[in-house]
Amino acid sequence: MALDLVPALDAPHLVAPPTAAALAALPPDLAATVSVAPIDAALADTAAFCDAYGVRLADSANCIVVAGKRGDRVTYAACVVLATTRADVNGVVRRLLDARRASFAPMDDAVAMTGMEYGGITPLGLPSEWRILVDGRVRDVESAIIGAGIRGAKIALPGATLCALPGVEVIEGLASA
């Protein structure tokens, strides 16, 4: 199977509502670099998607929701890392969130707070109070493939565009191989 990419602004039905709103709010030059393609929702998980659609893992990015806790305070953030790496949740992310403990946010919480489907969460359209931490390696990907907010589609955009999105903090060493 091949990805049938179209300009994301022309296909708001292929992204979650908060993602469509975020795309519409982007400066036109950035928005023009973002494409979207429908996929089989049963193949949304990274390994299955890459295998079925012929996408290299090195071109696929994952957006994970992390909850950092210090006392009664919980801080949420999104971490974007290449599929060939793993976010350093217990080290780098925990320190960036000034948390005693950091872990993947519970699925139900992530879905409720983002308005997106689990397995399709994307940095486009996340709650404005969240930090969006992107590993520096993502910047160098020519066309990064990431969730569209729904499991039935994927977004493609240059890594440089992803790193230039509003609120993104590029963190060298956020992930390890």
Brief overview:
The protein is α+β, with helices and mostly antiparallel strands and 177 residues long. The chain is 24% helix and 29% strand.
Mean pLDDT: 96
Largest sheet: 5 strands, mixed
Task: Please provide the ordered H/E string of secondary-structure elements.
Answer: EHHEHEEEHEHEEEHEE
Which runs of at least 5 residues are low in confidence (pLDDT < 50)?
none
How many helices does DSSP assign? 6
CATH architecture, by name, is: Alpha-Beta Complex
- Terminal CA distance reads 28 Å
What is the CATH T-level topology? YbaK protein
Task: Please tally the β strands and state the result.
Answer: 11
- Principal-axes shape call: globular
CATH evolutionary superfamily: YbaK/aminoacyl-tRNA synthetase-associated domain
Structural class: alpha+beta
Count of structural domains: 1
Organism: Microbacterium aquimaris
Protein name: YbaK/EbsC family protein
InterPro entries: YbaK/aa-tRNA-synt-asso_dom_sf, YbaK/aa-tRNA-synth-assoc-dom
Domain YbaK/aminoacyl-tRNA synthetase-associated: 43-160
Walkthrough of the structure:
The structure is a single chain. By secondary structure, the chain is α+β, with helices and mostly antiparallel strands. Helices cover 24% and strands 29% of the residues. It is built from six helices and eleven strands. Strand 3 (61-70) and strand 4 form a beta hairpin. The chain is globular and about 45 Å long.
